[in-house]
């Protein structure tokens, strides 16, 4: 009998909780709820949505976006979302699919183009697209292309366009507001891009070594030439022999710059810099990756600023 | 191309023939017309030249493309790898040149609609100090030697916009088992509910929801092996409710048939009584205490008939705790994970009511991106078995019977008596996300048998789709 009673109390508790859920559940939220995988997208979404949207980024700006913990609390955020914005090209394949499945939210499923924004689909200048057969002996390869396209500021434009178009569909009452913000964002970004390009122009053809194949979009845009990576293959930590050959190569080419993301090990780039005389820069790769970077433009202000000042110092 | 050229020529001829008549009427204009005609002719010539130029270029490009394709098709993967290595050493931008048009429409379509396939193989070299070692879970290494622990084949895909389907087959030396095959609802439903229909690892505690390849130790924790078996995976209908509270709170309830071998639950002979199916309830909480620290706390309850006689039930209670500390800002690749579960079983049998309990705690420290170390303590306290071991457990049965005989107990009763605890330190190296090498030592202390030592060297390989990792 005792056991029966315990079962009864259990059932009653559950029923009470259901009723609470009915009362609390899915209350109509005035703002458009946007969840993004990385802070780059949330920064752009904030610029376009202004106070009409509430934006949450699941990954932190100083975190390696390949390896994010699929915390259950993210499910509750996705459950309430009107729009999910993510990078695609398998960048988040280790953590995001589970969360979207658990979110029980039709609005953000892959079949729903309005609420589900795979940014990579709107990027035209994808690099490192492998259409020839690939396998994992080549390292952690993304067959559809290198996923770090947000490090080319020109790719902010299609992202902004995609976000604006979706916000107008989700919240047509504020369509004009979104259009204006989009126009402002684009014109500011375009202006900024020409400024950055002017600053970088004098360093065209600079040879750089990077830690991970993360900077290819940035270096392509900046007109730099990537001549080596500290990782022997994507995702594989450096080995002493690889570093030795990289140092030799850098010395023979007289490479002056090493760039690495601020979530990768910092010792190896420093050691290589000491041996070769190159400058090692540890840089943020996303918005919020460093104090003071709160918008997409500020990210490139920081990147272009640090890189050009380092190269100027070298030139002197 | 020819027809348009002919057409142009026709127009020009008509213009030419009409010109003298026009010139009769207006001599001034005829000059203009002549000029225009000449311009037209020149344009035509230019266009023709251009077309010829383009055609030539096209031919060259086609030839180049053919030349490129030939070796790629004929030579083996080995050559491709070499090419990749060579080009990486010389110029990093070379490999990534997209070779266009390699995939035809058919292969693309096939790839799109095929489910994601993944295969995981787990093998263990083991050394046991005893000749007939006591092994608790089905997929633990069986004996001294090299053991196939499990080959798991997974197929996963969205069915449509309403459901997804996940299928996992488990191959071991004992045969093939349908480990999981269930549909999950994807759409928004009232009360934030989500249903899972089919055979699935039940939401009971934490370790029961983790596939072998996601677990942190070579052997299954003692209480899980004792009370749930290798895994508790009844075929059932499961409802999960996400409660809108500031933290994560999920309530689950499932009802179904324990149509697979489990140590605790079995079908009742009186199969028509709905009350005698297996019902499992679970409450899961997750608290994000800071961006670096997350804690999940859960409670589970399972009740169902145990098959000892009609109407006899087993009730299994569980508490699970998991905490993960990962300092994102300072050391993003270091983690400290604590996991603990307590289980309590009361089982009615025709003779008596049994009260067994078990508990384990484990601490795993990921001290570098690819390295894990860990320590686990597990204990179970059992007085008598719930049910007889089915086929496959004969070897173990004989040992237990022998133990029983020594202790002067009645013959024919199976299972462990008294208290058993196990201490397991381990060290893991993950060369990549897809491969793993693990060393583990197990010290097993039992009330009614020799203490047992074991050393394992486990190898794990995963191919196919990149699976997502649950928290």
Q: Overview of this structure, please?
A:
- The complex is a heterodimer of chains A (316) and B (471).
- Chain A is an alpha/beta fold and 316 residues long.
- Chain A folds into 2 domains: 32-193, Rossmann fold, CATH 3.40.50.1980; 202-283, 3-Layer(aba) Sandwich (Rossmann fold), CATH 3.40.50.1980.
- Chain A contains 10 helices and 8 strands.
- Chain A has a 4-stranded parallel sheet with strand order 2-1-3-4, covered by helices on one side.
- In chain A, helix 2 crosses helix 5 and helix 5 runs antiparallel to helix 6 (175-201).
- Chain A is globular and about 80 Å long.
- With 471 residues, chain B is an alpha+beta fold.
- Chain B has 2 domains: 2-77; 116-464, Porin.
- In chain B, 24% of the residues lie in helices and 41% in strands.
- In chain B, helix 1 (2-25) packs antiparallel against helix 2 (27-74).
- The longest helix of chain B has 48 residues, at 27-74.
- Residues 19-27, 69-103 and 385-415 of chain B have low confidence and may be disordered.
- At the A-B interface, helix 1, helix 3, helix 4 and strand 6 of A face helix 3, strand 7, strand 8 and strand 9 of B.
